[in-house]
Amino acid sequence: MRFYGDYHTHTHLSDGRQNMREIVSAAHRQGLMEVAITDHGPMAAVIGVKDARTYLYNKGQAAQLQELYPDIRILIGAEANIRDLEGTLDIPDEIIAELDLLIAGIHPYTRPTSLHDGMALWVQNSLRHLGQKQSRKAVVANTDACIAAVENNPQLDILSHPGLFFRVDIRAVAEACSQNEVLFEINCGHNHPPISDIIEAEHTGVRFIINSDAHFPETVGELSYGGSLVEALGLDPERIVNHAAGGGIAVWGKKGRIYTYSSSLDCREPARPR
Ligand SMILES: [Zn+2]
Ligand SMILES: [Zn+2]
Q1: Residue 230 and residue 78: Cα distance in Å, rounded?
Q2: Could you tell me the residue range of the domain that residue 164 belongs to?
Q3: pLDDT tens-digit profile of 232-270?
Q4: For 222-234, what is each residue's pLDDT tens digit?
Q5: Residue 90 Cα, ligand 1 centroid: separation in angstroms?
Q6: If you measure from the C-alpha of residue 242 to the centroid of ligand 2, how many angstroms do you get, rounded to a whole number?
Q7: Which of 8, 24, 26, 51 is most exposed, with the fewest beta carbons within 10 Å of its own?
């Protein structure tokens, strides 16, 4: 399977070992039409950006770099952290409004919004080896957090690596993604999810995106894990939004299509003409 773009990469401003130029140059070499830079949100210890304003800096960098690489479209997004059972993300709306795309996922060592949520998500998960009951409770909490993130963030384009680090009920999460037009990610950096989860998710009608989650230039555009799995399963390429003939983010991205990004204009009644 050939691909239009890779929509999940990290620079050294989060936990990548590469700068933006190396990512763009690698993606260009791979013949991709689009590449997205999606550093981790600020609330994940060690791996996150220092400050959400980093994304504005990335935008400025991308604008300069775009002139040097006219053949590939550079997009700036974020991989936000899901912080609680309500699906709260760790990037303010006004910054999200500036992004080209939004990814969210659950990551270890994320600062929760409250002690209660910290208990439900991070502590339950760290206790899960203690027994089946604790493990079930952790899966319920993780699933609730993912579903809430999908339902409560209309800007969300992609749920990253569902079930990685924190087990979830794949069918329930995929169902929520399908209903809210959120893409279910097949993550080639982590070889996740396994084929059984893709089969499970596929039944819900959800659409997939295959990303590299590259932290090194060598893995930018490296999408063969997902490509070979969906081919083996005989999935219709139309179900994979970033297949080569898919047309790119202009076709499936939410910005400007489903979600109006200008929050100041969004909820007010238009002024009446005098
Ligand atoms: Zn991630
Ligand atoms: Zn990532």
Answers
A1: 26
A2: 5-266
A3: 999 999 999 999 999 999 999 999 787 765 444 333 444
A4: 999 999 999 999 9
A5: 14
A6: 17
A7: 51
